[in-house]
Amino acid sequence: ALVSMRQMLDHAAENGYGIPAFNVNNLEQVRAIMIAADKTNSPVILQGSAGARKYAGAPFLRHLILAAIEEFPHIPVVMHQDHGTSPSVCQRSIQLGFSSVMMDGSLMDDGKTPSSYEYNVDVTRRTVEMAHACGVSVEGELGCLGSLETGEAGEEDGIGAAGKLTLDQMLTDPEEAADFVQKTQVDALAIACGTSHGAYKFTRPPTGDILAIDRIKAIHARIPNTHLVMHGSSSVPQDWLAVINEYGGNIPETYGVPVEQIQEGIKNGVRKVNIDTDLRLASTGATRRFLAHNPSEFDPRKFLAETTKAMTDICVDRYEAFGAAGNA
Ligand code: G3H
Ligand code: 13P
Ligand code: ZN
């Protein structure tokens, strides 16, 4: 069944678990996530970015998600629009039937230039007014995502601040978060706490606290009724990097956010955990390996089935690790 983000995250908060929010662009990603959710009895957040709409087209994206709901009627699903760059983009998604939208006012509508606080409050407040009138939840963002190690915003096409960020920009301020939530009434807030988008988060194997856990704690204490969201939460599986590079790929050494750090975040109020890169890496690795082993194969269903399997395994791991399993 289609449910709102508010409803789903309220349950997660009451029961102290986190929910992975996977980005979807095609049939295989949607099926992999649903198969994993079915196996583990987990609630599902499927999110489509502007890039996904550009790739698949809004009607296909919408109907892929509706098909998932039809095939798995016992699993609650949030249809979420990821990183909306303006109230009008969010309005269009609401019209299309999304049950949740993100208004990312931390950046201007070019998706690159950090915005002023006043701008962020204004676009987010307007989006909440519109969305709540339609029973749709809203996620806002305060602070600019950036790796605490490199100061880089990350590599996602279209979304992410350009150039180096200061430590101040890269950590959401708890007092400002309280003011922001009070003024905008958002249901969920994406915070900057040391993660960044894409595969290149850390250059060395992360040890200890690579996220600003104390900051997450302080924000949660200040806005306990607003669900915290962590973007850029791929763990960048080293085994899939090795497979990609073994079979003709060329991806330099790089590290993501360890699952244990995400679990620490969940203990301290993080409820929605955004993951895109991990599924991309798994499907690319599975495709390269299958085609290298089966050079005469030309039926795309053969390697696409491998990608579905690879992605399903990662989804199962995350549902279990974040405590979502058993909560559908
Ligand atoms: O936030 C970014 C997501 O990973 C989506 O990436 O814009 O390439 O679809 P995309
Ligand atoms: P990753 O690039 O770490 O998978 O993050 C995805 C994301 O935050 C989508 O909004
Ligand atoms: Zn994001």
From TrEMBL:
Keyword field contains Lyase: yes
Reactions catalysed according to its record: beta-D-fructose 1,6-bisphosphate = D-glyceraldehyde 3-phosphate + dihydroxyacetone phosphate
EC assignment: 4.1.2.13
CDD domains named in the record: TBP_aldolase_IIB
Comment on bound cofactor: One is catalytic and the other provides a structural contribution.
Cofactor(s) annotated in UniProt: Zn(2+)
Alphabetical UniProt keywords: Glycolysis, Lyase, Metal-binding, Zinc
Domain of life assignment: Bacteria
Pathway: Carbohydrate degradation; glycolysis; D-glyceraldehyde 3-phosphate and glycerone phosphate from D-glucose: step 4/4
Ranges in coiled-coil conformation: none
Gene3D superfamilies xref list: Aldolase class I
Functional summary from the UniProt entry: Catalyzes the aldol condensation of dihydroxyacetone phosphate (DHAP or glycerone-phosphate) with glyceraldehyde 3-phosphate (G3P) to form fructose 1,6-bisphosphate (FBP) in gluconeogenesis and the reverse reaction in glycolysis.
Family of the protein in this entry: Belongs to the class II fructose-bisphosphate aldolase family.
PANTHER family named among the record's database cross-references: D-TAGATOSE-1,6-BISPHOSPHATE ALDOLASE, D-TAGATOSE-1,6-BISPHOSPHATE ALDOLASE SUBUNIT GATY-RELATED
Name of protein: Fructose-1,6-bisphosphate aldolase
The organism of origin for this protein: Thalassotalea eurytherma
